[in-house]
Amino acid sequence: MSLDKPDERPNGNSSSFLLTGFPGLEAAHHWISTPFFFIYISVLLGNSTLLLLIKEDHNLHEPMYYFLAMLAATDLGLTLTTMPTVLRVLWLDHREIGKVACFSQAYFTHSLAFVESGVLLAMAYDRFIAIRNPLRYTSILTYTQVLKIGLGVLLRGFVSVIPPIVPLYFFPYCHSHVLSHAFCLHQDVIKLACADTTFNRLYPVVLVVFIFVLDSLIILISYVLILKSVLRIASKEERAKAFNTCVSHICCVLVFYVTVIGLSLIHRFGKQVPHIVHLTMSYVYFLFPPLMNPIIYSVKTKQIRSGFLHLFTNHHSPSHRM
After folding, report:
1. DSSP letter string over 195-221?
2. Which residues contact 224 (CB under 8 A, 6 or more apart)?
3. What is the DSSP string of 216-235?
4. I need a surface site. Which of 86, 160, 185, 271 has the fewest CB within 10 A?
5. pTM for the whole structure
6. Is the dihedral of CA 147, 149, 153, 155 positive or negative?
7. Phi, psi of 228 (to 5 degrees)
8. Number of other residues whose CB lies within 10 A of the CB of residue 212
9. Three-class SS of residue 184?
């Protein structure tokens, strides 16, 4: 009896699942893993540097940058949750994952995606107050208020995902135990359950509507109101300056929600689309926003750019301080 590969036959009592890389491209997994590894390192470096910069630079101790720190921390969490199993599958062909580890990964992956949406909404609120009510900005968005908003966003993300994840621990799995991704997702696991999964199929749809759809609508409305305020400003320079503070956030919102919409459309209407397209879109969804957010803010925000320069010249050039 060979012990080289885990048994892929249906097994209701199995305590593990099998993750899947890119079916049909197993021979190229080592090559495919190279860009994944570089993106992984870039995400870790970019977001960690952003967090360090916001912590160290007192000029960045403002609500806008506290929310940006929350976004960077969420992106780090999302990448650290998904990428280790992806690289393990692609590099080592280590496909087996315990059920508890799998359900925990699914829980953190979905929770952090909802947290990201909430942080982007909080950032829109920050820009809305800054432009619509600039004189009361610091009295409305106090440090305590920012903490409360951050805590609310965290709780919403992590509590709302508990109801569909808990039943996964109790379902029997007799169809198969082969998952279609290199990390665990609720919608992937639920297909393998041999039980009534009505609640698990309906609840996530409601959740997506109440979180992703509602958040994106509120962000859109807030920007319509921001635009109205900006257009009322008489000076052209002041108008450009006011709108410029929103550009980075608008780019991050577009990067996040365009990938969310793209993935949702492919899942709903892409039955004829090759499986590799589904896989690629899911990796784009989980990797593109965490990769792009630090780049967008570094390129478009003057304070972050000068902060980066200051951080690196201070750390690497002692002679500059002499």
Report:
1. S--HHHHHHHHHHHIIIIIHHHHHHHH
2. none
3. HHHHHHHHHHHHHHHHH-S-
4. 271
5. 0.90
6. positive
7. -60, -40
8. 18
9. coil
Burial profile 250-272: b = 16 or more Cβ within 10 angstroms, e = fewer? bbbbebbbebbeebeebeeeeee
* Crossing angle of helices 29-56 and 275-300, rounded to 10°: 30
Cα–Cα distance, 187 to 177 (Å, whole number): 14
Q: Is the dihedral angle over the CA atoms 154, 159, 160, 161 positive or is it negative? A: positive
Q: Quote the Cα angle for 271-199-266, to 5°.
A: 20
Render pLDDT for 25-37 as a digit per residue (tens, 0 to 9). Answer: 888 898 999 999 9
Q: For residue 103, give every residue at least 6 positions away whose Cβ sits within 8 Å of its Cβ, in sequence order, or none.
A: 165, 168, 169, 184, 189
**Quick check: helix, strand or coil at residue 181?**
coil
Residue reference for tokens 């925000």: 301
Q: What contacts 9, CB < 8 A, 6 or more positions away?
A: 176
- If 0-12 CB within 10 Å is exposed, 13-18 middle and 19+ buried, where does residue 80 land? middle
Tell me which residue has tokens 């004829």.
272
